[in-house]
Design a protein that fits this description.
The chain has 218 residues and is mainly α. The protein has a domain at 30-46 and 86-170 and 181-217. Helices cover 84% and strands 0% of the residues. The chain has helices at residues 2-29, 31-50, 56-75, 78-99, 106-131, 134-172, 184-212. Helix 3 (56-75) packs across helix 5 (106-131) and helix 4 (78-99) packs parallel to helix 6. This is Stage II sporulation protein M. Keywords: Membrane, Transmembrane, Transmembrane helix. It comes from uncultured Anaerotruncus sp.
Length: 218
């Protein structure tokens, strides 16, 4: 009985050690993605915190903008929703693509996920403050899935752009030996894949609006 219990405890310790090593390996391999994800979440938090400081006139202007956004989405065909959603995510990705070829664009790259989160936080908190709980389903079903997926793609864009930008910085920095990094060809191929992923997330969001927007009308 004692031997069986000891085997059970050893097995639990080995399993716990395995999970710990895997967790540390995951953090080590993906720390840049996690850092950019933190910047996005920080932007969402800042955006939601701003709502409490807005005056009535500012909220009225935001209400006009939101009503315009909602009414346009409700009146759009699926193709129009796809294009508007795709280009809203494509332009930040295009900016990140060109930032990769600039040796000093690292701060700008870090700001992209922050402002993405800031915009979503402002929009979501404004909807909730104006429409109340009736906006919850609209946000969760229609906006949140596409936002999460497109943000994940942008986080990988940030990682690749930062890597190429740092490689160019090492080339022009006489105090640092240049190290091997991502080739420009591989960089462009990855961005083609990222663009295809953004098109997929836009298609998903436009499909959700087509199928469920009538159930969550504001």
């Amino acid at each position: 009985m004692n031997r069986t219990r000891s085997f059970g405890l050893d097995g639990k310790r080995r399993k716990a050690g395995y999970y710990k090593r895997y967790f540390l390996f995951f953090i080590r391999e993906n720390w840049l993605i996690l850092l950019f994800g933190f910047l996005f979440i920080f932007g969402v938090w800042i955006g939601t915190s701003f709502i409490g400081s807005f005056q009535g006139e500012t909220l009225d202007q935001l209400l006009i903008l939101l009503n315009g956004f909602v009414s346009r989405r409700e009146g759009q065909e699926m193709r129009q929703t796809f294009l508007s959603t795709f280009f809203s995510s494509f332009w930040p990705a295009a900016l990140l693509f060109f930032c990769g070829f600039c040796a000093i664009s690292q701060p700008l790259i870090a700001l992209v996920p922050f402002f993405k989160g800031l915009g979503f936080g402002l929009s979501a908190s404004t909807m909730l403050s104006i429409y109340g709980s009736s906006a919850m389903g609209y946000l969760i079903v229609l906006l949140l899935p596409g936002t999460i997926l497109s943000t994940l793609v942008l986080l990988f864009c940030c990682k690749e752009s930062l890597g190429l930008s740092c490689m160019f910085f090492q080339v022009i920095n006489p105090l640092q030996m240049p190290s091997e990094g991502t080739s420009v060809g591989d960089y462009c191929v990855k961005y083609i894949i990222f663009t295809a992923c953004l098109a997929g997330t836009s298609a998903l969001e436009s499909l959700l609006f087509q199928m469920f927007s009538s159930y969550f009308a504001l």
